[in-house]
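User: Okay, second chain of the day. Same drill as before: sequence in, structure tokens out.
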Amino acid sequence: LTAGTSVLLSWQPFRDAVDLLYQNMQLLHPNGALQSLVVTSALSGEGKSTIAVALAMSAARLNKRVLLIDADLRRPSLHKLLNLPNEQGLSSLLRSDVPIAELTAAQAAANRSNLAIITAGPSPSDPAKLLSSQRMQALISQFEGSYDLVLIDAPPVLGMVDAVLSSACTTGTLLVGRLDQVTRSELDQAMAVLKPLNVIGVIANGADSPAIDANYAPSEYAAATA
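Assistant: Same drill. Structure tokens below.
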């Protein structure tokens, strides 16, 4: 972890808020109905990647087998946040000719902890083409069978199609909105884009305390400062 990310993720109020968010997700989706989840935002810089990491760590602490994937193939950040190499990653898996079953089995076997991470990998010339491929859908489907929760850190919604393509492969989507950055209009635009998909909640990032906006029900809000 980078120094700043490590401090934030170890800050107890932040951890408590994210733990509450994850527990609420489980209550709303019992019996493992929420197998995969995209975490996105309306704009860049709203803290979606940090929220994705925190959610993954929260689930792993509860002994869930979690896979965290960086699907932001244009401006990846998980490898920077977590100090991981990025020579191979999601883009490599999507361009590989190796059968999906072999790739997912190897990924699961290589992981010895509750939390596994796949970085974005080298930036492709056409990210949307990879994310919309049948191989992407098959990859996520296979991972859902190997892990209790697959979390996908996707690009921002506004201005590109990548987040929608990633969300189409999963069972749910979380939208992160940083209170001092995103406007209500931009948040509404992002919600409209995601409307055909299963948006399970909106996280108000930077809130002093948890708050609920009935206009986005059912919503889940976490007080955070990422």
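The first strand starts at residue 36 and ends at 41.

User: Thanks, on to the next one.
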